[in-house]
Amino acid sequence: MTKTFKIKERLLLENSPQALRDLLLRIKTNHPHLTIGAESTGIYHLPILKACEETGLNCTIINPLLTRQILKSSIRKRKTDSDDAVRIAKLLMQNEGRVMAYREATNKSKIYVRSTLKLSELYQALSLHKKYLGKVLDEIPEVIVQEEKELGQALKRMKKEAIAASPVKERKLLESLPGIGPWLASVILAETDSIKRFKNADSLIAYAGLDPTIKQSGANLNTQGKLTKRGSKQLRWALTCAAGIAKIHDPELKRYYLKKRSEGRKYREALCIVGRKLAYRIYAVLKRETPYLIKKDK
């Protein structure tokens, strides 16, 4: 049976926590079976999540990639708040999205991790700037030297805080894998939230954007296209970074990496493929709750 879509009511709401709670309480009373949804938009969907939690309602969060796909496929390509609301409603009718709790969205570990990664980008940019100045100037300004030192110290402190905020049991499990230390384990755990979110390792790989795009023309099927690069770029970075270390210390992954290179794969491509293989191990370790045992060459 095909579901029909009809707009029942449009509301202009004051942007305040109390106004949201009042609306949700009215909805709960008049429409107890209504599904509430919102698009994931940085921090802007957090108030609706909090209001839903306070009023005892579930809120389904929609991936913005889905709403963009609908916009691209439309003829007029209008983008307004009311149009976005209709797109979200249609996606909810198709059972898209997932129920998310306010606690999960405000994951302390994820906030620490993402802030640290941003600071790391600034530190790397400043280091490159300092290196460039060293080539064109006789002496690097003291303010640049001091700034780099202070930024480096702050980065170390934030990494320690991010590691301390991550769940110890799961972090230790990931640290049993070659290529993954306390910091990378913290990034992976913060970005995945819970391994129970993913039905299999392939869905974890897709969430990291390490799955290749699939192109088909007639009978020809190409499954080795460019990466989709959707989902969490932080998780994608952590997996490729871990892969770069693992291919040195793990004999099996080293052989696998060299095999892909011998097949003509570029360095970055081979690294991403190793990252995918590592994601399977990560999924298995967290799902089974058992540490990884390195296979030794005979």
Report what the structure shows.
The chain has 298 residues and is mostly helical. Helices cover 61% and strands 5% of the residues. It has helices at 17-30, 46-54, 64-73, 81-93, 102-105, 108-136, 142-165, 168-175, 182-192, 201-208, 233-249, 251-262, 267-288; strands at residues 36-39, 59-62, 98-99, 215-217, 220-222. The strands form two sheets. Strands 1-2-3 form a three-stranded mixed sheet. A two-stranded antiparallel sheet has the order 4-5. A hairpin with a 2-residue loop joins strand 4 (215-217) and strand 5. The longest helix has 29 residues, at 108-136. It starts with 16 loop residues before the first helix and ends in a 10-residue tail after the last helix.
State the secondary-structure class. mainly alpha
Q: What order do the strands of the largest sheet run in, or round the barrel if closed?
A: 1-2-3
Number of strands: 5
Overall body shape: globular
The amount of helix comes to: 55-70%
Count of domain modules: 3
- The proportion of strand residues reads 5-15%
Unreliable residue stretches: 214-223
Distinctive features:
single chain, 298 residues, mainly alpha, 3 domains, 3-stranded mixed beta sheet, 5% strand, globular
Write the layout of secondary structure elements.
Blueprint (H helix, E strand, L loop, with lengths): L16 H14 L5 E4 L6 H9 L4 E4 L1 H10 L7 H13 L4 E2 L2 H4 L2 H29 L5 H24 L2 H8 L6 H11 L8 H8 L6 E3 L2 E3 L10 H17 L1 H12 L4 H22 L10
Parallel strand pairs: 1-2
Antiparallel strand pairs: 2-3, 4-5
Helix pairs in contact: 1-2, 3-4, 6-7, 6-9, 7-9, 8-9, 9-11, 10-13, 11-12, 11-13, 12-13
